[in-house]
Amino acid sequence: MIPELQAWNDGKGTDAESWIRYVGRFDHAVGYAQLFWPEFTIHDDCIMFADFTTESYETWMKHTSGRRGQVEAVMNHRHILDLFSSDELNVPRELVLYLGRRLRDMWACKLKRDFPDREIVVSFPDEEYENLLDYEVTIYHPKHTA
């Protein structure tokens, strides 16, 4: 999954943990930790990333005629390719799928821990898309989509 690992140690390779120890940075680790284990909040009975704005929420509520499920889906989705700079658009499909599935699983665990009494869906598509930009992780309450 990480081609660079093969080149380490004069071509003998290394493992991911050792590689991170040599090239990783604490500030990057903190940034990734915030991506992998984000803060969430409840607003107007909707699950939201904690950094949402009420102005954006109200705009989407008006735009969707008050459909909370649509508001949650549009405000709580993250395209995998949008997480990185545009020069990363040549990323192999298997890496996009790997990261998307990991984010889905981590966010689902975080939400279950933080909101154990709520049914919250964290979705990531199982079907194959031609355009990698279509791969996104989405969070919503199923009760708002009924």
Q: List unreliable stretches of 5+ residues.
A: none
* Total E-strand runs: 5
- What is the rounded Rg? 18 Å
The topology string of helices and strands comes to HHEEHHEHEE
Total number of helices: 5
**Strand line-up of the largest beta sheet:** 3-5-4
User: Per DSSP, what share of the residues sits in E-state strands of 2 or more residues?
Assistant: 5-15%
- Kindly report how far apart the N and C termini lie: 39 Å
Mean model confidence by pLDDT? 92
The largest β sheet comes out as:
3 strands, antiparallel
How many domain units? 2
Helix residue percentage: 40-55%
Decide which structural class fits the backbone.
Answer: alpha+beta
The best one-word shape is elongated
